């Protein structure tokens, strides 16, 4: 569906461009005919020549437009320079064609080559081609701004949805029921200190989560602190079975990440790691840099199904699917989530996003 939308958008831009180019040169053609009439020159003898030159101008403009669209991601100054060079070349071709066509159609009125007249025709064509090129660069920029605004609006909506989903994950009855049950069990066993620690850990975790602004990115260190708070609650319940290891370089602690982006991955590691294994659970959370990308890795001991490519959403739980959709909406060009077993007893989820330092 996403590729279909992209193809439809490209087709609409092509149709609009073709319409604008044709209208642009048709208007120039009509203005020239009007000027000839005002100046007392019969336009009929020039119309065939002008029609051929206008047709060539349309073809050249479409070629220039395609080149501009192809290089739209390069530096603006370089774009302007290339547009200027292409405009000179296009104007030179149309000026030469205009000169030779006139002499071919009207041999009795053949015009001798005159540098001043040729330069006038050249600069007239240059102003038209360069004017169109500048307009189309602005048109593409406007489309990019509108697309960015749509992505931003979608990202905000996804962030709000993620906040609600995260709250659902964090305050779901199953989680609270097990935690409070553990508190009751500790009290009955005569371990009020442990029960108090568990309640304080739960309170700290919920308070930190509720105070989050879902529209703001967090430094990776803060995001990991939130996950540490969640894992602290779980470790109070499974202290004899759970071991958590962090591998995060100091220079990446300031990297910006969407808030609570790791929460479903960590919860998935705890839930399925403990659910599928009766032994000890090891959770490893790692971060590393690869070029201009930030990689976040969550691994756990688990028995899982065959490897699944997250963007395809095949056989996924709600949590992983939501993370995949959220990261792809926020970073459509480079945001990915791939998860699956790397061995019969180990499951891995790998997040990729642009590296942005606070």
Question: Could you explain the architecture of this structure?
Answer:
With 358 residues, the chain is of the alpha+beta class. It folds into two domains: 2-150, no CATH class; 212-354, Histidine kinase-like ATPase, C-terminal domain (Heat Shock Protein 90, 2-Layer Sandwich). It is 63% helix and 13% strand. It contains nine helices and seven strands; from the N terminus they run ααααααβαββαββαββ. A five-stranded mixed beta sheet has the order 2-4-5-7-6. A two-stranded antiparallel ribbon has the order 1-3. A hairpin with a 2-residue loop joins strand 6 (336-343) and strand 7 (346-354). The radius of gyration is 32 Å and the shape is rod-shaped.
Quick take:
This protein is of the alpha+beta class and 358 residues long. The chain has helices at 2-38, 47-70, 76-105, 115-170, 173-188, 192-210, 220-237, 263-276, 318-330; strands at residues 217-219, 242-247, 256-258, 281-290, 293-301, 336-343, 346-354.
């Amino acid at each position: 569906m996403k590729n279909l939308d992209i193809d439809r958008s490209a087709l609409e831009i092509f149709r609009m461009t073709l319409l604008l180019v044709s209208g642009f040169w048709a208007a120039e053609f009509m203005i020239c005919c009007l000027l000839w009439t005002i100046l007392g020159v019969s336009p009929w003898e020039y119309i065939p020549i002008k029609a051929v030159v206008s047709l060539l101008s349309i073809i050249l403009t479409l070629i220039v437009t395609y080149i501009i669209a192809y290089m739209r991601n390069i530096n603006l100054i370089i774009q302007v320079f290339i547009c200027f060079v292409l405009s000179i070349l296009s104007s030179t071709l149309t000026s030469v064609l205009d000169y030779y066509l006139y002499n071919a159609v009207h041999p009795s009125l053949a015009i001798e080559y005159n540098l001043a007249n040729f330069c006038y025709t050249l600069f007239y064509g240059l102003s038209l081609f360069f004017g169109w090129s500048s307009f189309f660069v602005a048109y593409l920029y406007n489309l990019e701004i509108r697309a960015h605004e749509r992505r931003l609006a979608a990202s905000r909506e996804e962030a709000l949805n993620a906040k609600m989903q995260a709250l659902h994950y964090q305050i779901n009855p199953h989680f609270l029921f097990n935690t409070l049950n553990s508190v009751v069990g500790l009290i009955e066993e005569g371990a009020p200190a442990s029960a108090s620690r568990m309640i304080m850990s739960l309170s700290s975790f919920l308070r930190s989560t509720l105070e989050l602004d879902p529209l703001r990115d967090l430094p990776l260190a803060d995001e990991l602190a939130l996950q540490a708070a969640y894992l602290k609650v779980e470790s109070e319940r499974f202290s004899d079975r759970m071991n958590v290891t962090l591998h995060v370089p100091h220079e990446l602690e300031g990297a910006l990440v969407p808030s609570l982006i790791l929460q479903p991955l960590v919860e998935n590691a705890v839930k399925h790691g403990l659910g599928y294994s009766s032994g000890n659970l090891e959770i490893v959370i790692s971060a590393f840099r690869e070029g201009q990308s930030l990689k976040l890795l969550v691994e756990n001991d688990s028995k899982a199904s065959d490897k699944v490519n997250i963007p395809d959403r095949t056989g996924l739980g709600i949590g992983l699917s939501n993370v995949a959709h959220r990261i792809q909406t926020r970073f459509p060009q480079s945001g990915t989530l791939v998860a699956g077993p790397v061995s019969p007893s180990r499951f891995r989820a790998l997040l990729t996003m642009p590296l942005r330092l606070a």
